[in-house]
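Morning!

This is the sequence you dropped in the shared folder:
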Amino acid sequence: MVFTAIGALALTGCGDDGGSKDKTGDGDATGGSSKPSVTLPKLDGEKISVAAVWTGPEQANFTKVLDEFEARTGATVTFVPAQDPIVNFLGTKIAGGQPPDVAMIPQVGAIQQAVAKKWAKPVGAEAKAQLSKNYAKVWQDLGAVDGTQYGVYFKAANKSLVWYNAKAFENAGASEPKTWKDFIATAETVSASGVTPVSVGGADGWTLTDWFENIYLSQAGPEKYDQLAAHEIKWTDPSVKDALTTLAELFGKPALISGGADGALQTEFPVSVTQTFTGGDQPKGAMVFEGDFVSVNIAQTEAKIGTDAKVFPFPAVGADSPVVTGGDAAVALKDGKGAQALLTWLASTDAAKIWAEAGGFISPNKALDAAAYPNDVQRKIAEALIAAGDDVRFDMSDQAPQSFGGTPGKGEWKTLQDFLKNPKDIAGTQAKLESDAAKAWTS
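The structure's back. Tokens below.
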């Protein structure tokens, strides 16, 4: 099963982030030959725009991928900064007559909305051939609506990891926990040493959905997870009560959370990471939960992954540690040779290799040589993701309609922020989640 395959990993090691130096188009992502893995058309003079919510290092690394596409095709590609919720952002652009050629969409539900609104264009034959060659069926299916392929998943994430400050653990005499019970006990041990144990980026509601989903998947199991993700069972189900009760074992102890609930609700995700790995032996938090992409934010501190910053799988609540994945899919919003060529490029191993080498990235592309990743931590996470094949469980909130699972200040994001502040109100939280979900699924 996927749970044991990834949950049992010994995630150690370190290495310096590298970068793709090949601008000639002759490199091969699989390392066996100098021949490019994909053929692209000549697009001299063509202008292509790509919208994505990525900022900072993620935007910079994606730009390297676009630069290589430009070098191989002669096209000019412009990055368009987008905002969440991306469907609203794209709607504004489309209404104004200026849709981007391609959008990187981070939610399955948002892809479905783009198709329903007749914004999305089907994936062309060349990109589909790359998908068929390089991707497990689950990743193809996630980008399809009613049997038609619309999305090319370029960036994946393992969202079931806890990163920790090695010095804070050492000073506290703490060790890596394997179960949720051990996790809470470890947090208490670290707290007793004078360091607040857990940093939570509660200002970004999506981090709280990830907390819930990991607990729910491990505790309720994959079948229930799939049912709740599709709203086939209600959020008032006893399994949701159980998961919220478990989460309240952490959220209900403000001393275990950096800044308490109020502080966490004012802490954005990037800060939740950097404050864990700065401050010497007195960081504001000793642990931070989130995906492999945390490494990008750690790189903005002086901490070294594998020595100062270490990682363990999300602790098992039930029999197995959970594995929740996320991802960003490229979707064409305009007909045209340029948009389709970019989808083909993003489905290739050559494109995946560029960001893999730069770090802070996991590719769902099974043909990518794991040697492309800059350190053992990312390499092992990527290998396990690929080994999981079709057993991967995708982020639940990203499968929901965006009004419920992907909008700041609304739906699941807002309700779980309220729950962080008042974790005793489990019944009220369930009722609000169900009310919002029912509206979202019928609208």
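Headline: The radius of gyration is 21 Å.

More detail when I'm at my desk.
O.
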